[in-house]
Amino acid sequence: MKNLEEKSIILNIENKKLRKRNERLKKVKQSVQGKETSASKAQFNSTPKSKANAEIRELGLTPRKVPNSVKRKLIMANAMIAEIQATKEKNKPQKQSCCKYCKWKYPTKVQVYRYVK
């Protein structure tokens, strides 16, 4: 019985190892196919500075060699874009029905005439 338990533990460890290896290989294959690049990853959840560095790297440059004035302008532009997007999401108008009798968000004239006379 003890022997079987030890064998089970060893097999579970081996299973985890192989799963991890498989996950890593899948990630490598996706990045080779162009689905995921470091620059595209940086565009989703990151700071304006890291987005600017990713944009610079996409152009084939290194962020250390780019003049500070250019980097500052890129960072400022990314910060402004992020602020505008956040404000836009915050101030989205909510869809409401035209009156308390209608269920429709944007009813046609015929639907309005049926319920509001």
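(the above was protein one; protein two follows)
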Amino acid sequence: MKNYRKNRSAAGFTLVELLVVIAVIAILAALLMPALNSAIGKAQVIQCTSNLRNVNLGLVGYADAYDGFVPASGGAYSEITVPGGKRMTWAGQLVYEGLLPNGKVLTCPGIVKWNAYCWKYAYELTTQSARDFLDAGNGLLWQMGYGGYGLNCLVQGQIGFGRTYSRVRLGSVRQPSRKLLVADTRGNDIDGTPSANSSLEPAKMSGGAGGCGGGAAFGWHQETANALFFDGHVKSVHGPKTTPELFWIWTRSQPEFCFDNTQSVDVSPWFMQ
């Protein structure tokens, strides 16, 4: 009898007891998961905000070197052509010229959970790898087109719908605290996969893409889009995942966009397309 009790005691938990423990753990995990996801989401918003502040430093550094302008745009991939015939997006140029050290700073952390198209290529790009890529004979540094941040096309001289907007100096923008410079941006999906876009453009009334091949402001962070304004401050804009209003907030009540461009963006048929 003593041996029987000893053997049973050594056997540990019964199957039923193990199942009860597993069930309790599963319930606790289910209760904690929303809080954990929320904490992760908030951390990503904070990281994204930090990224955009660094992007602002990179753009200011570029403007200081190029007579007050930000990188231009106008090609099929919203790219620019630099001396030597090398083509790259505005974000790619900031990395290529060493104004920002790597693509990690220019990649929105919110796009990771979406597994957005080619985001890893943007995230892993460095100044050296960007130069090596172009020196190897590749004509277009395309990687940074998928980082999730779009630069306001109206200061880049973007071409679309038969119209060309003149490039604008950063210092000439009216009421810079009310106008978007860079924001979380989404373009057309590629093969059914969410895709970022390097150009922030007026959204169409349907879908998530921008007005002429670029992207619309988009909430990569649980229906929240982070935006960098011309005065350097960063703000989180809340709302539906896909909404033109996220882009309109910066010119809605402004009769003119900047001092040296009297074109009214709000009444422009291209803007309201």
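Reviewer note on protein two: Helices lie at 2-10, 15-65, 90-96, 119-124, 127-135, 153-156, 245-248.
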